[in-house]
Amino acid sequence: MITSMPELLTEYGLLSLFLISFCASTLLPLGSEWFLVVLLLQGSNPVTAVIVATLGNSLGSGTNYLIGYYGGDWLTEKLLRIDKKQQQRAESWFNRYGSWSLLLAWLPIVGDPLCLVSGMLRTPLIRFSLLVTTGKGLRYSFLTLLTLQGAEILTYSGTI
Q1: pLDDT tens digit string along 135-154?
Q2: In the chain, how many domains are there?
């Protein structure tokens, strides 16, 4: 029987990773990177873990896009808690760098508003999806590489 949150998370490893990654790019102020590292150190398949985290996080960003596309101020401010200042900052990035700025949708603070503004500005969904998924996939891939190389170094040195 599962008795604690850590046990619940690790019992349902990849499903938990998907849900945490999804939530991390929508409503909840949390990150998913820590859990990816935990799963990798527990021996999860790196390719599968990166795909699951990327998919969850990208779909979460897609939720922000859809709120920007179809939603109004109430959804933006009350549900996502993105104020006018954050929206203006994201819109400035978007106007300066165009839809290519979506490659940075994984960044804290500006990433969620970027996806929202992208929806508000009616970026084509295919372009949005490709850019956001590419940026998030590269971030998770880089983190995976660092984690695995770090674990190898620590194992080799006898620390782990």
Answers
A1: 999 999 999 999 999 888 87
A2: 1
What integer is the mean pLDDT of 94-122? 88
Instruction: Tell me if 40 sits within 8 A of 46, measured CB to CB.
Output: yes
Neighbours of 15 (CB within 10 A): 12
Burial class (CB in 10 A: 0-12, 13-18, 19+), 38: middle
pLDDT, greater one: 25 or 84: 25
Copy the structure tokens of residue 123. Answer: 């970026």
111 alpha-carbon distance from chain centroid: 9
Q: Which of 69, 53, 61, 58 is nearest to 112 (CA)?
A: 61
Cα-trace Rg, the chain: 17
Per-residue pLDDT band at 4 (split at 50, 70, 90): low
Domain of residue 48: give its range.
Answer: 5-156
Encoding tokens for residue 85?
């200042």
How much is the pLDDT for 5?
A: 55
Helices (H), the chain: 5-11, 13-24, 33-41, 46-70, 73-74, 84-97, 111-120, 125-156
